[in-house]
Specification:
Layout lengths: L2 E5 L2 E5 L18 E2 L34 E9 L5 E6 L5 E5 L3 E6 L2 E2 L5 E2 L13 E6 L3 H4 L1 E7 L5 E8 L7 E12 L11 E3 L5 E4 L23 E4 L31 E4 L4 E6 L6 E5 L5 E7 L7 E2 L5 E2 L2 E2 L15 E4 L6 E6 L12 E5 L5 E6 L5 E7 L5 E6 L5 E5 L4 E9 L3
Parallel strand pairs: 3-13, 17-21
Antiparallel strand pairs: 1-2, 4-31, 5-6, 6-7, 7-8, 7-9, 10-11, 11-12, 12-13, 14-15, 15-16, 16-17, 18-19, 19-20, 20-24, 22-23, 25-26, 26-27, 27-28, 29-30, 30-31
Length: 430
């Protein structure tokens, strides 16, 4: 059973350990290796680029009455090995990521025997928060065959790599096609982030944790020289001959931050461990579930019209509370739209805005959960013009991830039980 261990503010999910990898990472020519840098140039507790109201408040409201409906989780696939994520490839197939380094394929409701991809020989899944952590298919995957993964290598460092689908079999990837896009040194085994997702702009967003330890031990959250504790934004499709290029409108490409240069790859700063984020497929808005220290978990919302250059506040703040001192400067920081404390909970798992057709009552509602308690909440911008959050399910298992299929229906992966379940809504009995 996974448990959470608290050590001097350092929270780690402890899960059954898998065998250590015995092979080194395959050749990564063409990739970019980024060393971890120290906190010597950490910025003061202020932000220069201020998020405006227009990017933190939606233009549309949602009518949702949670007491009128019942949400349940219906099993779809069982017998998975520590599932951490699931996604689609712009078609009806569903790809399920297993921690050890395997991607399974669900076709017409049946789990194929042969894995879509097996890279256990290069994935280090021994650490509690290490393994094959993320998967995203390129927007043009139907033509290019490219998809991207985020995994921990034999040294425990983060690897973002591109793979290609087998030209002769779309249900099989080509393991030898690996092209490393980015490699980032990790000082600890936790707070690796792990999510990769393409935004509505066609760029790849990579959520990086602060490097682990407790209390931003390595000083990365507000350090402009490191990619740790940041949201990155890369162009990985325009020129396949290069690992990546920098989008011309990345916020710090020509600007600086309090007089200091910022890495060009960075889109936003001040994240602790963004364990799952998503883009609303209808609006392009970005939702981030950022894991807190030992008191609060938070959900950050940023509308699609944001140009980036944001500061989500860690470690100045933990959710909407000052963290480093009893008094802090919050000017210019993006504060969460909802948060919860650790009364029976431990670690947020970010989710999705429902945009499917099967359950109209959920339309426009953001669902997210807690890894330990299995509680699922709904958050929406109500007709009263305010953010509203309500519990819609309790005891939903060890929620390692939410997932969205091609049709916009939502699912959850349960790490302990090895199950993929669909979120189902029924009319509550009166």
């Amino acid at each position: 059973m996974p448990i959470f261990t608290y050590l001097s503010g350092w929270r780690l999910p402890t899960i059954g350990l898998l065998s250590a990898t015995t092979c080194l990472l395959m050749a990564c020519s063409g990739g970019v290796t980024v060393p971890m840098r120290g906190p010597a140039t950490t910025m003061p507790n202020t932000a220069v680029i201020t998020e405006t109201t227009s990017t933190t408040v939606p233009t549309a409201t949602v009518a949702f009455a949670p007491d009128e409906f019942t949400i349940t989780l219906e099993p779809v696939v069982e017998g998975l090995d520590a599932p951490l994520f699931a996604t689609h490839a712009n078609d009806a197939r569903f790809f399920i990521v297993e921690k050890a380094g395997v991607i399974r394929l669900l076709v017409d409701g049946a789990l194929l025997d042969a894995p879509f991809l097996d890279i256990r020989d290069r994935v280090n899944s021994n650490g509690n928060e290490q393994g094959l952590l993320g998967l995203a298919f390129a927007p043009n995957a139907n033509e290019s065959g490219f998809f991207f993964v985020n995994y921990s290598d034999s040294n425990g460092d983060t690897v973002i790599a591109r793979y290609a689908v087998n030209a002769d079999d779309p249900d099989q990837a080509a393991p030898a096609s690996e092209a490393v896009v980015l490699q980032i040194e990790q000082p600890a085994s936790n707070h690796n982030g792990g999510m990769v997702a393409f935004g509505p702009d066609g760029y790849l967003y990579i959520g990086m944790g602060d490097g682990g330890g407790g209390g931003d031990r390595y000083g990365n959250g507000q350090n402009p020289e490191t990619l740790l504790g940041k949201m990155l934004r890369l162009d990985v499709t325009s020129d396949p001959a290069q690992p990546y290029t920098i989008p011309a409108d990345n916020p710090w490409l020509t600007a600086d931050w309090n007089g200091a240069d910022v890495r060009d790859e960075i889109w936003a700063v001040g994240l602790r461990n963004p364990w799952r984020y998503s883009f609303d497929r209808a609006t392009g808005d970005l939702w981030i579930g950022d894991v807190g220290q030992n008191q609060f978990e938070e959900v950050n919302y940023t509308s699609a019209n944001s140009a980036g250059g944001l500061n989500y506040g860690w470690p100045i703040m933990e959710a909407s509370a000052c963290y480093e001192s009893a008094d802090c400067v919050a000017d210019g920081l993006v504060l969460p739209v909802t948060e919860y404390d650790h009364s029976g909970h431990c670690s947020i798992t970010g989710g999705y805005v429902y945009r499917g057709e099967a359950f109209p009552a959920l339309q426009g509602v953001y669902l997210f959960g807690d890894y330990c308690s299995g509680t699922i909440w709904a958050t929406w911008f109500s007709e009263a013009g305010e953010w509203t959050t309500a519990v819609v399910l309790e005891g939903g298992g060890t929620l390692s991830s939410f997932a969205e299929d091609q049709a916009g229906e939502l699912y959850v992966t349960d790490l302990n039980s090895g199950t993929l379940r669909q979120i189902v809504v029924t009319q509550a009995t009166q």
